[in-house]
């Protein structure tokens, strides 16, 4: 089906699990709680941007969960006979793509979490983001299986570049040109994400400070 | 230059508001009603380097809002202010590394890891050199007796232990300005005293500037030479604590009605008024019981009332020696001295005897909570005009 056989599907979802595990954040829930309970105030008193604490938290969490992730990958690999072409070059590029995906998703989700400054509760935005992400990041199915317009949307938005791109790269499904384009899009979105974080943070903190805690 | 300069500083919040019930909840989804709350209104004061200033006032007076503005957490609505030469809400690194705000129990510590790791985190965040860190940690461990607490996860600490740890973590970077919002709340007397002593010593050793709010008069008495009384967002008093004590109503008024005219009451006190059979005497508070007894013994008294100044002729018809209870909601004359009404020293140990005798509705708990008093006093001045309901007790 659209270039995926059973073994390739298995490989796709196993790598997807790894990528998703490495790039996901829970900052949206966290930020809502912080704003509602005034915990952000304590962070604002420190002479350091709160994003640092989230980055540290995230890396700590991911490192610990590796202990569970690696055995899961091994077990699933034995059960489902995944097939993919392994290339050392792809493996190295995958690591770079994974890091960029992580940074880009972190920035985008951190910026979105700051909606909490304006609404106090950000569950609705959270849900919407999750819904779009499910389809456009290739989590529900490989993007090649989706209609053309969906793929066009995925190309323009950040979701694909934070999940599907590293997965397909690792599986050796991408041409050289596609890889170059993918990295370019990742870098572009990292820059955009960073800018959004900066901007939204500055405005949000004004709002937060004006309303009090 | 002052450590803290505050000029005409104001803060107004816009808060959503709705009636009780489901209907109101649904309506508020579409049409949100908001109300502006003026938490702080054009306050001005300066604090010198090394000064310890007590911020007093009832709940909701604007104390915490002021501290939050000064520590950069809140944008003021109006006015100018500076702390150590920085504008707080810009939250510059150089500013934040020199101040600290201790507010409740939820600032510094990471819940699930040992205290010592939280401190280590602060060391990294504040970029404290390792040598300084060890020195400060030793000092804090010593003063606050933290030794046994350091390896414990924060969630396993008791309230008092956590407060000590909060304070230690908040002072690790040796801030030059300390904002302490109720640093002793919820602690037992021993712990209160320890923290008090600690703040005192920190102030002395490092010349730090301290701005402190507390509902415990003992905190204020032990630490602050100067107090600022704030109410409804306005400053009612700013000066030496001793002034607050002596200036605020050191006298009582005794109204006497005698059987015969032209009596000489001057040996008993300062005669403020003599109108036929009625006399008003101003008597030092401490002497009131003795003077009352002497007048009753020496003179043919028809009626006698003891009250806080000013004299109130309308109430002098009450039965002899009956304690006058303040009428709820009654408005004081416009010319009433705010200090008389403030009455803070009534709660002061030295004055508490006369308070409990002459002011039947004051509980005689000594210098425990200023809150009650402050509420009484300030409300009586601005109360009837602005917030009539709050005078009513119970």
Descriptive notes:
The complex is a heterodimer of chains A (213) and B (394). With 213 residues, chain A is mainly α. Helices cover 77% and strands 0% of the residues of chain A. Mean pLDDT of chain B is 76; it is low at 310-373 and 377-394. The longest helix of chain B has 18 residues, at 189-206. Chain B is globular. Chain B has 394 residues and is an alpha/beta fold. Chain B has 13 helices and 13 strands. The chains are: A mainly alpha (213), B alpha/beta (394). Chain A binds chain B through residues 38-39, 41-42, 44-48, 206, 209-213, and chain B through 13-14, 39, 65, 68, 71-75, 89, 91, 93, 95-97, 99-101, 103, 106-108, 125-126.
List key phrases describing it.
heterodimer; A: 213 residues; mainly alpha; 11 helices; 77% helix; B: 394 residues; alpha/beta; six-stranded mixed beta sheet; four-stranded antiparallel beta sheet; 13 strands; 24% strand; globular; disordered C terminus
N-C termini distance of chain A = 54 Å
* Unreliable segments of 5+ consecutive residues of chain B: 310-373, 377-394
The main pleated sheet of chain A reads as: none
Query: Structural class per helix/strand content of chain B?
Result: alpha/beta
Beta-strand percentage of chain B? 15-25%
The geometry of chain A reads as: elongated
Based on helices, strands and strand pairing, what is the structural class of chain A? mainly alpha
Q: What multimeric state do the chains show?
A: heterodimer
Radius of gyration of chain B: 25 Å
* Helical amount of chain A: over 70%
Radius of gyration of chain A (CA) equals: 19 Å
| Most extensive chain-chain interface | A-B, 15 and 25 residues
How many extended strands of chain A? 0
Order of helices and strands of chain B: EHEEHEHEHHHEHEHEEHEEEHEHHH
The helix tally of chain B amounts to 13
């Amino acid at each position: 089906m659209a270039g995926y056989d059973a073994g390739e599907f298995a490989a796709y979802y196993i790598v997807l699990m790894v990528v998703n595990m490495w790039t996901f954040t829970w900052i949206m829930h966290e930020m809502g709680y912080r704003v509602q309970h005034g915990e952000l105030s304590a962070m604002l008193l420190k002479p350091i941007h709160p994003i640092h604490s989230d980055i540290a938290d995230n890396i700590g969490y991911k490192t610990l969960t590796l202990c569970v992730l690696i055995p899961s990958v091994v077990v699933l690999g034995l059960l489902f006979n995944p097939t993919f072409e392994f290339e050392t070059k792809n493996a190295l590029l995958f690591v770079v793509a994974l890091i960029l995906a992580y940074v880009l998703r972190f920035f985008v989700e951190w910026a979105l979490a700051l909606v909490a400054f304006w609404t106090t509760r950000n569950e609705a935005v959270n849900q919407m983001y999750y819904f779009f992400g499910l389809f456009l990041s290739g989590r529900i199915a490989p993007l090649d299986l989706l209609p053309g317009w969906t793929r066009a949307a995925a190309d323009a938005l950040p979701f694909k570049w934070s999940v599907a791109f590293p997965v397909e790269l690792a599986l050796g499904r991408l041409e050289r040109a596609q890889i170059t384009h993918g990295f370019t899009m990742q870098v572009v979105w990292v820059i955009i994400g960073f800018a959004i974080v900066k901007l939204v943070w500055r405005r949000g903190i004004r709002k937060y400070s004006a309303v009090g805690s | 230059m002052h450590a803290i300069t505050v000029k005409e500083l104001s803060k107004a919040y816009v808060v959503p508001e709705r009636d009780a019930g489901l209907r109101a909840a649904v309506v508020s989804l579409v049409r949100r009603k908001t109300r502006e709350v003026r938490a702080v209104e054009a306050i001005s004061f300066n604090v010198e380097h090394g000064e310890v200033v007590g911020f007093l006032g009832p709940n909701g007076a604007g104390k915490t809002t002021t501290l939050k503005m000064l520590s950069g957490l809140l944008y003021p609505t109006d006015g100018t202010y500076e702390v150590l030469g920085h504008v707080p809400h810009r939250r510059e690194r150089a500013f934040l590394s020199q101040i600290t705000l201790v507010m409740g129990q939820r600032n510094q510590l990471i819940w699930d890891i040992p205290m010592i790791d939280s401190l280590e985190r602060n060391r990294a965040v504040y970029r404290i050199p390792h040598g300084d860190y060890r020195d400060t940690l030793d000092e804090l461990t010593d003063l606050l007796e933290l030794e046994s607490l350091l390896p414990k996860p924060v969630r396993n600490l008791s309230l008092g232990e956590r407060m000590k740890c909060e304070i230690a973590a908040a002072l690790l970077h040796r801030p030059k300005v300390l904002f302490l919002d109720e640093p002793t709340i919820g602690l037992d007397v021993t712990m209160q005293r320890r923290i008090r002593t600690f703040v005192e010593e920190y102030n002395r050793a490092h010349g730090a500037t301290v701005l402190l709010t507390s509902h415990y008069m003992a905190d204020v008495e032990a630490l602050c030479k100067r107090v600022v009384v704030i109410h409804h967002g306005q400053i009612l008093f700013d000066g030496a604590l001793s002034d607050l004590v002596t200036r605020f109503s050191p006298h009582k008024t005794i109204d006497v009605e005698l059987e015969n005219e032209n009596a000489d009451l001057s040996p008993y006190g300062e005669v403020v008024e003599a109108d036929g059979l009625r006399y008003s005497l101003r008597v030092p508070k401490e002497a009131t019981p003795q003077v009352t007894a002497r007048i009753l013994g020496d003179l043919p008294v028809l009626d006698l009332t003891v009250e806080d100044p000013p004299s109130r002729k309308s109430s002098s018809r009450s039965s002899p020696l009956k304690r006058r209870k303040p009428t709820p909601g009654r408005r004081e004359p416009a010319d009433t001295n705010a200090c008389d009404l403030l009455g803070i020293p009534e709660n002061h140990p030295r004055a508490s005897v006369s308070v409990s005798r002459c002011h039947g509705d004051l509980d005689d708990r000594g210098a425990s909570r200023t809150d009650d008093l402050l509420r009484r006093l300030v409300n009586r001045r601005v109360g009837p005009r602005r917030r009539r309901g709050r005078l009513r007790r119970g």
